[in-house]
Amino acid sequence: MFTSKDIYDVIVVGGGHAGIEAGFASARLGMKTCIFSISLDAVANLPCNPSIGGTAKGHLVREIDALGGEMGKVADKTFIQSRMLNKGKGPAVHSLRAQVDRRNYQMEMKHRIELEPNLDLRQGEIVEVKTDDNNNVKSVVTRTGAEFLCKAAIVSTGTYLKSRIVIGEFSQESGPDGVFPATELSKNLQNIGVELRRFKTGTPPRINRRSIDFDELEEQIGDDVIIPFSFETNGEGLVNKVSCYITYTNKETHRIINDNLHRSPLYGGGGIVGIGPRYCPSIEDKVVRFSDKNRHQLFVEPMGLDTEEMYLQGFSSSMPEDVQIDMLHSLPGFHNAQVMRNAYAIEYDCADPLQLYPTLEFKKIGGLYGAGQFNGTSGYEEAAAQGLIAGINAALKIKGKEPFVLDRSEAYIGTLIDDLVTKGTNEPYRMMTSRSEYRLLLRQDNADLRLTPYGYELGLISSERYSKFLTKRRMIEEETARLQNLIFPPSKEVLNYLESVGSTPISTGARAAELLKRPNITYEGMKEIDRGRPDIPDDVAEQVEISIKYEGYINRQIKQAEQFRKLESKKLPEDIDYSKIDGLRIEARQKLEKIKPSSLGQASRISGVNPADIAVLMVYLKK
Question: Do residues 245 and 220 make contact, with C-beta atoms less than 8 angstroms apart?
């Protein structure tokens, strides 16, 4: 072993989406940072679906961007189809999703890392994290025996940690896409006090486009007007380049699966031991669990512009290769499909997130942070969000500054991390809009209004961007105030407009804001009678309309959030000995001692801690 002359403030273990955002954040906050990846060809890889965003995940990407992260910008530059999901529902659940060119996304992100000041990128497997006598991180060691000194380390190993792929009866130690697994680090992490568990995920086959009969598929086109992920991306001129398609499983597909369940590693026994994701199960799992359904929807998505590989979303499987082919050939449009890459399941080690503070630092190991799938989540977007927060907090700790923690009422990122460190997870955690009790406040469209001031204060948002943000916020406030003060008379013009949109006529003057609250009236449509309307950007108009239309619901959630923050403001000292607090139930004492909540609010969300226990803690705090 030798000690490298390169000394870093922060070392990031893993170059996936968590590691990338952690590296960027740390470096941009002035820390000399290095990202280590087993293979530089796997940096920013999209080993599963070639997309960024989706339901609730799109919210996370926009929040990452609002704080100064990179994922949204690269997705905007490399997308090939963009769609806003759930447009038939209210704005709280609108979620942006983009198909990206897999290789272009990788290359673009990797190049940005290479160009970033203070940030190095190195190929190498980290096999050991070393700590000093006080159990604080002091260095990491590579498989080749090089020791790199550092003040903090962020573990973002994705699905590579002691990973194993499974296809029917076949299995081998491997990371995604045939990349080497990280086989040594698990043992070291356990030796320094990290509790690990085993999770599983999977991926569907990739099909040669030439072998698909698209006449049997439903075409799915992108949006006419494209909304970018990044608030800095100019949406003008953005166009969709590809179509996606839809097909369905059928009775024959289900028969093939049921006839071969005894060969499935999930059901045949002795194969897969890791716990898989509830909300993204394999196709054989779906067929078994939802046996009453005659078909399941599948999405056929291009992997990029310069490849014929097509991704079959919803058809993840660990079935043997011959069964996979029979299943595939039973699908409409896939009778002659040629498989380019087999579907497989992958098992990997990850940490119990209850060991983490809300900063994502390990409670028992100073300067060691976890991020991404290593913390028990699934998805690129959840990973990137955690990486950003871990990178920020590692830098802040080294600088001796207060940590940065978002609460549940401020961001989906706050909800994600609070769920992990307070409730834990027994399966790969996926973000969904239903997980947030404040989702009308935490919309994807207002992520910049909620979080960009934080990004600027931290130093991740430039002065130029912040100046543009302040201008946008001022325009929203001015136009909202104008509509609240503008009164329309019951003139012929106004009455004709109301009749044309099927809205009740008025007999006296009515405020523009009150008319806008009516279901058939839109801000865009009201310009017909609003002669004094200023020329404002579309994103400003969107915020004005939503804030007025949903004012009552928004105000109600604001009050709920204020009550939430009152409990959050009641801090619990870290050195409380819960065993000595009279009145606490045994289960509550054990859970509180393990998680060591930072506030009364966090304590109230711990499974096994009930309202009576919280009342006991309130009395204790008053004393």
Answer: yes
Contacts of 274 (CB under 8 A, 6+ apart): 198, 199, 200, 347, 348
Distance (Å, rounded) from C-alpha 90 to C-alpha 72? 23
CB 22 within 8 A of CB 12: yes
Q: What tens digit of pLDDT does each residue of 247-267 get?
A: 999 999 999 999 999 998 877
- Give the strand pairing for 196-203 and 297-302: unpaired
**Sign, CA torsion 358/364/369/370:** negative
The DSSP bridge pattern shows strands 95-100 and 119-123 to be unpaired
Q: What is the pLDDT of residues 576-601, one digit of tens each?
A: 999 889 899 999 999 999 899 999 99
Strand locations in 352-457 (E): 368-370
3-state class (DSSP) for residue 97: strand
Q: Give residue 12's identity as a one-letter amino acid code.
A: V
The total number of residues written for the chain in this structure: 623
* Tokens linked to 340: 């380019």
pTM flag (> 0.85): yes
Please tell me the distance from the alpha carbon of residue 175 to that of residue 159, in angstroms, as a whole number: 7
DSSP 429: B
> 3-class SS at 19?
helix
- Structure tokens of 163? 């990973």
Per-residue pLDDT of 80-111, as tens digits, reads: 999 999 999 999 999 999 999 999 999 999 99
Give the tokens for residue 6: 């390169």
Instruction: Give CA–CA dist 469/528, Å, rounded.
Output: 29
User: Of 412, 375, 390, nearest to 25 (Cα)?
Assistant: 390
CB 357 within 8 A of CB 141: no
pLDDT of residue 4: 86
- The whole-chain average pLDDT of the chain stands at 95
